[in-house]
Amino acid sequence: MAFRDSINDLMFRFYERFKQNNNRLPVSVDADINVGDVQIGTVKQGGVDEGAEPWKVKAEELEQKIDELKQTIESGVQLKGSKTRISSEPVVGVRTVTSIAAELHAGAIRKAGRSLLMVRNLDPAVRVRVGPSTVSDRTGFGIEPEAVLTLAIDPGSDVPIYAVSEAGAVQVEVLEA
Q1: Residue 149 phi/psi, 5° resolution?
Q2: Predicted structure pTM score
Q3: How far is CA 7 from its chain centroid?
Q4: First-to-last CA distance in the chain?
Q5: Strands 38-45, 116-121: pairing kind
Q6: Eight-state DSSP code of residue 53
Q7: I need a labelling partner for 51 at 20 to 30 A (CA). Which of 2, 63, 105, 140 fits?
């Protein structure tokens, strides 16, 4: 309730300032435009002094947007969409990565139709590299020690991802969903 009240108060104060400034936004830009050391012009937009150009805003449009925002806040905000949709139970596991490229998957084989692959480097000092089957300790994308890599994967393509260690055997956590 406090968040909604503070947003309503903020919108009310903004609207009042808008009306007090003859339908001008209560913000202004006053800046010099320079190229290197040469001043080539000045921008004055939305200010209250004589040389400033008003922001082009129609009061009715602003009132409509404020009303829409109020309705959204009062009815509750609902998140829509997702970058990754998990349609089946995830598989998790720990793998040992060495200097020989090995495919990353959480179970015994790659999860069919996976849309998400997360890899956490558990080593405190050694970097892991990921990429195609030709990845080496000098190529590929590096996952820093104790960092996480998240890959969104097209479930229809079933792309293998390989990993190698830059030095010795490194444990990584793998989540496939």
Answers
A1: -115, 130
A2: 0.53
A3: 24
A4: 37
A5: unpaired
A6: B
A7: 63
Q: Report the alpha-carbon distance of residue 106 to residue 12 in Å, rounded.
A: 53
**Topology (CATH level 3) of domain 91-176:** Jelly Rolls (2.60.120)
Q: Indicate the length of the chain as a whole number.
A: 177
Closest Cα to residue 83, out of 105, 115, 110? 115
Q: DSSP of 96-121, one letter per residue? A: EE-SS-EE--SSSSPPTT--EEEEEE
Asked if pLDDT for residue 42 goes beyond 90, the answer is no
Element (H, E) at 94: strand 91-97
For the stretch 144-151, contacts whose Cβ atoms lie closer than 8 Å and that sit 24 or more positions apart, written own/partner, are 145/121, 146/120, 146/121, 146/122, 147/120, 147/121, 148/118, 148/119, 148/120, 148/121, 149/118, 149/119, 149/120, 150/116, 150/117, 150/118, 151/116, 151/117, 151/118, 151/119
* φ, ψ dihedrals at 66, nearest 5°: -65, -45
Q: 131 Cβ partners below 8 Å, 6+ apart?
A: 139, 140, 141, 161, 162
Every domain of the chain and the residues it spans: 2-75, 91-176
Cα radius of gyration rounded to whole Å, the chain = 27
Element (H or E) spanning 176, and its range? Answer: strand 170-176
